[in-house]
Amino acid sequence: MGNMIKVGMGDLKVCKCPDNLTTLGLGSCVGAVLYDKKTKVSGMLHCMLPDSTKISNNSNIAKFADTGLDELLKQMLALGAKKPNMVAKIAGGAQMFAFSNSNDMLRVGDRNVEAVKAKLKTMGIPIIAQDTGLNYGRTIEFYSETGILLIKAVGKGQKEI
User: Residue 151: beta bridge partners?
Assistant: First the structure.
């Protein structure tokens, strides 16, 4: 077993097999994992907001779905990953609070998921598994050797996607 590399909030990390990646407490944030099936180069992004273009102080590129995924891809290619071999798995994007109205500003989880999906589509990277939405937080662990994304949620047990 390799190291378990922690990805913080609004952060991204890349690694090579046998190292693995984890991020804790995904609420409305989305954890996006990119994985090269041949080289086993992996990357994880913990993005908090959908779109960097709507925020004036957006120096932290990993905070946003659009710039975060671009940077993740760039770092993975630098480690030897090849884009045609890449697949994605995503988790998170929960609606953590119950609101009576469906104000768009409050649908951060949904909007993060939509933004990640849209960005991956433009990048040409297929999403092969996802565990998103609903109303609970998730901790995820990605295993580069197997390509398994383990999802842990309080009171929900664990599942693999």
Answer: 140, 159
For residue 78, how many other CB atoms are within 10 A of its CB? 10
Within 8 A by CB and 6+ apart from 14, the residues are 41, 42, 43, 44, 72, 75, 76, 79
Residues taking part in catalysis? 29
Q: Which of 79, 10, 67 is nearest to 43 (CA)?
A: 79
For 33-46, what is the mean pLDDT? Answer: 98
Res. 75: pLDDT tops 60: yes
**Strand-pair partners of 131:** 91
3-class SS string, 69-101: HHHHHHHHHHCCCCHHHEEEEEEECCCCCCCCC
CA–CA gap between residue 136 and residue 89 (Å, rounded): 18
φ, ψ at 160 (rounded to 5°) = -115, 135
Find the helix or strand (DSSP H, E) in which 86 lies. Answer: strand 86-92
Structure tokens at 14: 């890349």
pLDDT at site 59: 81
- Quote the tokens at residue 106: 């409050």
- CA end-to-end distance (rounded Å), the chain: 19
Mean pLDDT of the chain: 93
> Tokens standing for 55?
């925020």
